[in-house]
Specification:
Blueprint (H helix, E strand, L loop, with lengths): L1 H8 L7 H19 L5 H10 L1
InterPro entries: Mat_intron_G2
Pfam family, one: GIIM
Protein name: Group II intron maturase-specific domain-containing protein
């Protein structure tokens, strides 16, 4: 997951910042929706700190 986030937020990608944020939000919302039924509060907290 961190590799994917690094890829989405890479400065070497020639796209506007607002589109990067949009793609990142879409990816994170999908990930959160997929894992929302599991006990992942610690994982989400650590990910939030890392972001």
């Amino acid at each position: 997951m961190r590799d994917k986030i690094r890829q989405l937020t890479s400065r070497s990608r020639p796209i506007p910042m607002d589109r990067r944020i949009q793609e990142l939000n879409r990816y994170l919302m999908g990930w959160c929706s997929y894992f929302k039924l599991a006990e992942t509060s610690t994982v989400f907290r650590r990910l939030d700190e890392w972001l």
